[in-house]
Amino acid sequence: MTPSRIEEGDHSVYREMAIFTGNSHRSLAEQVAKHLEMPMGDVEVFEFANEEIFVRYLDNIRERDVFIIQPIVSPVNTRLMELLIMIDAAKRASAGRITAVIPYYAYGRSDKKDQPRVPVTARLVANFIEVAGADRVLTMDMHAGQIQGFFNIPLDELTAFPLIAEHFRSERLAAPTVVAADVGRAKLARDLAGRMDADIAIVDKRRTGNNDSAEAMTLIGDVEGRDCLIIDDEILTGGTVASAVKLLRSRGASSIRVACVHPVMAEKAFQVLDTADIDEVVYTDTLPLVRGTFKNVPATVLSVAPLIGDAMHRIHTGGSVGALFR
Question: Global pTM?
């Protein structure tokens, strides 16, 4: 009998890799499989009439290195349950190792107890994934760094910002300035500016409660005559971005582009950004646009499939994921 895995140094390297996906973003999973020159695994994932989810693997996955690609996207709770049930089903089918590939980790904003009597849902979701039976997690640009510490299993976090930096470098902007959407994104803006040899500015905003609204208040830095790049890890309603655009235009910005990794995009975000004075919106395909499309503002989509595929290959072969960014 051929062993299911071989020992290579200190690493346990599985012989056979299998890629599966639920219903959240099949096109991304197919692109990852194509990059790896592998077929997609066959699995049934559907809802009964009573909204309960059923999962059945149609391929033999005994002792295989299973990767389940499932961003937690709208409808968030349904897609999360799909992921958990797929993990449980793979565990019960005697998979050798299960890696949950979660390009977008929902509930990431609930990462701390910042008000009385509120949950830390990001930690709860981490517990769900572990209890379901995942052996490790591969994700991308989580909303808060401390979420990594919520897991007691290995977690690899990729970043799409080098892709975004390369895109804007290719545009050869005359006077680029990276603008952090808020103070909490200052380090991110600094890192991106370093990759682009650009200046940096920061928008100081005030959030107005728990209703996803925020008001841009003031600007730290000079943007007059500059090509501004507003960055954030995700965009939900577009309100913060629209306020920042208005502020930058009032300070004499020459052009304004907006970039994010995760286009969560509530329905109103498309209207807000389409009517804002923006030259380009750039985002990745970590999750699909399920609530609308842009009609006026030029939009550019950057694929993260090759990056995810390379990371999966390194996990499978016992290589270094961190070396992808050196």
Answer: 0.91
